[in-house]
Design the sequence.
């Protein structure tokens, strides 16, 4: 059984000479998703029919290389467009998307200038370990990209700021 998400773990610490360090980590398993047929065979006009599940193992090993995960995240051959007049036999949210791991950190220091005036320096690092966090794969049948991951989350981002308080 997979746990959908782990709690956020935060850290805040005072360092040498008034510097402060903050950090937060988010680690979770992938979000569930369904495989859709991409045709309105249920004749409802809604257009969200699920595919027919043909059997076999629909989930592939997520421990494969990034290149293999991008090319085929789930077994597309385990699904087919739903039969006319049906909503599809594939269960709702039967697959899980890629896992997510992210750590953000901040480093800051307040510099007092006069009694009621201070300058704050901040350095913030988002996804500091530059972990690749893939988005969910394309889950509609009939596309050449079905089962493939076509996008990812943000890479490492750094930002610096100065704030004058008075």
Sequence:
């Amino acid at each position: 059984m997979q746990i959908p998400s782990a709690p956020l773990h935060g850290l805040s610490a005072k360092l040498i000479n008034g510097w402060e360090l903050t950090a937060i980590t988010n680690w979770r398993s992938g979000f569930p998703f369904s495989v859709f047929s991409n045709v309105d065979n249920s004749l409802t006009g809604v257009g969200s029919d699920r595919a027919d599940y043909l059997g076999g193992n629909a989930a592939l090993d997520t421990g494969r290389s990034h290149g293999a995960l991008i090319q085929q995240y789930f077994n597309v051959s385990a699904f087919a467009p739903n039969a006319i007049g049906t909503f599809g036999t594939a269960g709702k949210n039967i697959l899980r998307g890629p896992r997510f791991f992210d750590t953000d950190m901040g480093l800051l220091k307040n510099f007092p200038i006069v009694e009621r005036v201070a300058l704050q320096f901040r350095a913030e690092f988002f996804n500091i370990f530059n972990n690749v966090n893939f988005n969910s794969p394309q889950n509609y049948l009939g596309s050449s990209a079905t089962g493939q991951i076509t996008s990812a989350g943000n890479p490492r981002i750094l930002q610096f700021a100065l704030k004058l308080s008075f």
User: Anything to note?
Assistant: Residues 1-7 have pLDDT under 50 and may be disordered. The chain has one domain: 9-165.
